[in-house]
Amino acid sequence: MTALRTFGALFVLALAIGATIRYRQRSISRLNLIISWLIATAVVMLAIAPSLFDPIFDVFNFRPGSGQRLTAVLLFAVVVLFVLVIRLESYTDVNERGIRQLVESLGVERFDWDAAGGLPEGKRIVVVSPAYNEAENVGEVIRALPVEVEGYHVVSIVVDDCSEDATAEIAREAGALAARLPIRRGGGLALRVGYEIALRLGADIVVSIDADGQHVPEELPTLVKPIVAGEADHVNGSRMLGAYEGGPLIRNIGVHFFSWAVTILTGQRVTDISSGYRATRAETLRKLILEQDQFWTSEVTIEALRQRARIKEVPVTFLTRRGGESKKPRSLRYGWNFAKAVIKTWLR
User: Smallest Cα–Cα separation from 188: which of 224, 162, 161, 167?
Assistant: First the structure.
């Protein structure tokens, strides 16, 4: 036991000294330094002179030699650790939210607002395409979009997630308006920037479409028709109701599994929860709370269901990527992160 107490005292002293060095390097705050030294002092006192804590143990009738005092110390240590973890998570969430808001604001600010001033008046469908290194595909996607659908002008926006190629420039040449994020944060954040811009442009309907050519732009009228007809607030394009070209078997199984899981969780039948080809009424979009930076394709639909929006699925066609490299991780990792995104959104 003496060896254990000695090891514990030396260990916390090393941590406290390390905290002091980090404080002098301005890596941690004074508050964190004080907390480190308070914990180190308590552990050292407990190791050197445990009898000093006898009055506290006596209050709870913890008798020496029975193991109760050791259990009490361990329980107290766990409580302190839990409080520190919660405090760390709070700081992390605040910092993450601040970075996210900063990148989103910069993305909106860098949009082609001057060019947007020349858009035609009237009702608008704004099509948002988050894109990262899609110079080979984005131009063809933009050019294939219809100019007008059901009396609505179609406006295309590409949000470049800090690509290393000429994605934004090619999108502009093809006729789209573009915004470029200062750092890469993921398709979900790029989509939120596009949604914010679309709402500021006075969109009546906002559509998301992949920039890699997997979605068919000519099917846009099918996607927005239920909203135009007043039958839905959010429309999901489903490859399971339509058609899709081949892909990894495990990914196809994943589409069925997660669609089934979301159907069970929400009580609404969904056949293709991972589809990124969707349309949302502007009034509905303003109500949605969107937070996922990556693995975001399920979030909009689940959040729309949580807001009790009228949801409808329509058949669409999914194609294989026409050029470039997929940005998705390997299937098992993708499935794990997709599952976390679904659960986080459902638990709100």
Answer: 161
Rounded Cα distance, 176 and 123, in Å: 18
Using an 8 Å Cβ cutoff, are 305 and 311 in contact? Answer: yes
- Ordered per-residue pLDDT tens for the chain, 348 residues: 577 778 878 888 898 898 899 888 888 888 888 888 888 888 888 878 777 777 777 777 777 766 776 777 777 788 888 888 888 888 787 888 888 889 999 999 999 999 998 898 999 999 999 999 999 999 999 999 999 999 999 999 999 999 999 999 999 999 999 999 999 988 899 999 999 999 999 999 999 999 999 999 999 999 999 999 999 999 999 999 998 876 667 777 888 899 999 999 888 899 999 899 999 999 999 999 898 887 788 899 999 998 999 999 999 999 887 666 665 656 677 788 888 888 888 887
Specify whether the CB–CB gap between 290 and 299 falls below 8 A. yes
Q: What is the domain partition of the chain in residue ranges?
A: 2-105, 110-346
H/E element holding 244?
strand 234-244
Task: Select from 60, 86, 65, 64 the least CA-distant residue to 75.
Answer: 60
> What Rg do the C-alpha atoms of the chain give, in angstroms?
27
Angle between helices 68-109 and 30-48 (to 10 degrees): 170
CATH of 110-346, one of 3.90.550.10, 3.30.750.24, 3.40.50.1980, 3.40.50.300: 3.90.550.10
Q: What angle do CA 316, 318, 324 make, to 5 degrees?
A: 150
Contact call for residues 185 and 161 (beta carbons, < 8 A): yes
Q: Which pTM was predicted?
A: 0.78
- CA distances in angstroms from 244 to 19, 172, 238, 239, listed in the order given: 56, 29, 9, 6
Strand segments, DSSP code E, in 64-186 are 124-131, 148-149, 152-160, 177-180
Q: Alpha helix (H) ranges present in 110-243?
A: 113-116, 138-144, 167-173, 187-200, 220-228
